[in-house]
Write a structure and sequence with these properties.
Structural class: alpha+beta
Distance between the termini: 30 Å
Largest sheet: 7 strands, mixed
Bound molecules: glycyl-adenosine-5'-phosphate
Number of strands: 23
Radius of gyration: 29 Å
Strand content: 15-25%
Number of helices: 23
């Protein structure tokens, strides 16, 4: 289990240091939207760059040691709405949602109890009752209802009509003395006034009133293209980057002459009108995805599925995520999307939850997407794959070298499919913001280190993997005289042509180290008296806090070696 951290304190830290800000905070913010500050934008860029470098430009070798062919795309966010009809999003991209009968707020039905567990009134109420024994402390519950309850959950049945509510509950407890109600059942009793008419009710996390029935609500953000807001001009903000890849499959094949197997990758914004955005940036309404659609021969689908599942898990480990916190979980058949024949969620033990949560999904989507687009666009030929090499080889022994001519001889579907077929697709789909949050929580640590006088003082240190650290190196002159600032500035200027580097000449050097530890800078280089005589500097390691002396001319290479794993 990862160390639990106080998420409110952590969010304040992220704001104070410039990692993450609430969007439009000066107007009270907007639920589900976040901004990255000066350090956050560097961190997230390093994450996206690492993904692009390791998956697109330099992917690891395939299962048989072969080179992986991967190219990138950058598609528009708004596409022809038919794309979303074909993909199934218009009809079915929805979450079960319940509306409060009193305050009108919506709650995602399948997350209700997790949301309740996080809400203030529920946490306060839990202190009052003891679900294990089933003992009901009526006076304490009445007192809670009258004080905290009125403030936190004014529409909860227990608050509105405590006598009636507690009578129903007492009846239940007395009628089954050996079977005390669970926490959930107790809560539902406390949310129910008219038990005989309604049965048990579920409370609204916002105000405590009963929730209505679950209904499917679309997660698609809508807009209009053009000046007229008509049904014809309606468009959607893409809820995933994947469909832009499928829609460009033929363009990519024609422009690159790639042969199967190959991948197309994209990083970009996606938008989902999440019913209950929560857990800081984890579930946002605007976020970035890093997606690969890997096209392969149908017979090789499972081989590539396993390959990508393993490659993707390993990638997180190489960037400093401890394997204990990283849990791949194969979805069961009834949990999988209807088109998927295999899905593994790579889950991460975020510190805000007792259960691992999805960081990335690796799905075997078979031929679902290309087949759907073939059907809806009428471009079946474009969305198939012709194995030209195989045909050229086999046709040498045939009556004709022309595939079109050969089709006239009425070959069986199976014979045709040997040369022309719809590729299968493996999709590793990662969230750039989720991984940024995982990197931030994983790196965050509080410890105590001796100050200049040897007294222990608290420090927050962000133990980022050097590749992801927003700032790679800080350069300090030990004192602001004797030519040290000039020399330090010269080194800083040299280094900043290659890395994100800061120059700091303010305050005691110990304080300057703390400031860098707090933002996760892996190296601090100090120009001191010795530098002025022999051109050596001290280089301090963030984690061990050890300093060693190296020639100033070697600083750049020393940092470079660490960044490239040398
Ligand atoms: N094309 C497949 C697809 O979009 P998904 O599981 O819905 O699959 C993939 O999303 C990844 O996108 C998730 O694993 C997660 O990292 C990220 N993601 C999805 N919804 C998100 C949200 N509301 N906020 C932040 N990230 C999200």
């Amino acid at each position: 289990m990862p160390t639990k951290i106080d998420m409110a304190k952590f969010a304040k830290f992220c704001k104070d240091t410039g990692f993450i800000f609430q969007s439009s905070e000066i107007y009270g913010g907007i639920n589900g939207f976040w901004d990255y500050g000066p350090l956050g934008v560097e961190l997230k860029k390093n994450i996206k760059d690492a993904w692009w470098q390791d998956m697109v430009r330099n992917p690891p070798p395939g299962p048989d040691g072969q080179e992986i062919r991967m190219v990138g795309l950058d598609c528009s966010i708004i596409m022809n709405p038919q794309v979303w009809v074909a993909s199934g999003h218009v009809a079915a991209f929805a979450d079960p949602t319940r509306k409060c009968s009193s305050c009108g707020k919506f709650t995602r039905a399948d997350h209700l109890w997790a949301i309740l567990a996080e809400c203030e009134w529920m946490n306060s109420l839990i202190q009052v009752f003891t679900p294990i024994t089933g003992a009901i402390d009526t006076p304490r519950l009445m007192k809670w209802a009258d004080a905290k309850g009125k403030k936190l959950a004014p529409n909860l049945a227990l608050v509105r009509n405590p006598q009636v509510t507690l009578t129903w509950l007492a009846e239940r407890v007395n009628s089954q003395p050996g079977n005390p109600p669970s926490l959930q059942e107790l809560t539902r009793y406390l949310a129910t006034e008219q038990f005989a008419q309604t049965g048990l009710q579920d409370p609204c996390p916002a105000c405590g009133a009963p929730l209505g029935e679950a209904k499917q609500v679309s997660l698609m953000f809508e807009s209009h293209a053009g000046l007229e807001k008509t049904a014809e001009s309606k468009v959607y903000l893409r809820p995933e980057t994947a469909q832009g890849i499928f829609a460009n499959y033929r363009n990519v094949l024609n422009s690159t002459r790639l042969k199967l197997p190959f991948g197309i990758a994209q990083i970009g914004k996606a938008f989902r009108n999440e019913v209950t955005p929560r857990n800081y940036t984890f579930r946002s309404r605007e976020f970035e995805q890093m997606e690969i659609e890997f096209f392969c021969h149908p017979k090789d689908g499972f081989k590539w599925y396993e390959y990508w599942r393993d490659v993707r898990k390993k990638w997180y480990s190489t960037l400093g995520i401890k394997s204990d916190n990283l849990i791949p979980r194969e979805q069961s058949a009834d949990e999988r999307a209807f088109y998927s024949v295999g899905t593994t969620d790579i889950e991460y033990m975020f510190p805000f939850s007792d259960e691992p949560q999805e960081l990335e999904g690796v799905a075997h989507r078979a031929d679902y997407d290309l087949t759907q687009h073939a059907k809806h666009s009428g471009k079946a030929d474009d969305l198939a794959y012709f194995d030209e090499e195989l045909w050229n080889n086999d046709s040498q022994a045939m009556a004709t070298r022309s595939f079109k001519e050969w089709l006239k001889s009425n070959p069986t579907a199976e014979q045709v499919a040997k040369y022309k077929f719809v590729p299968h697709v493996i999709e590793p789909s990662a969230g750039a913001d989720r991984f940024t949050l995982a990197v931030l929580t994983e790196a965050y640590s509080e410890d105590k280190v001796p100050d200049a006088k040897g007294n222990l003082e608290e420090r927050i240190v962000m133990r980022f993997h050097p590749r992801l650290a927003p700032v790679k190196c800080a350069v300090f002159p030990l004192v602001n005289k004797d030519g040290m600032p000039e020399k330090a500035l010269k080194l800083y200027r040299e280094l900043k042509a290659h890395f994100n580097v800061v120059f700091d000449d303010k305050g005691a050097v110990g304080r300057r180290y703390r400031r860098q530890d707090e933002i996760g800078t892996p190296f601090c280089v100090t120009i001191d008296g010795d530098t002025m005589t022999n051109d050596t500097v001290t280089i301090r390691d963030r984690d061990s806090m050890q300093q060693r002396r190296i020639p100033m001319a070697e600083v750049r290479q020393t940092i470079q070696n660490v960044l490239s794993g040398g």
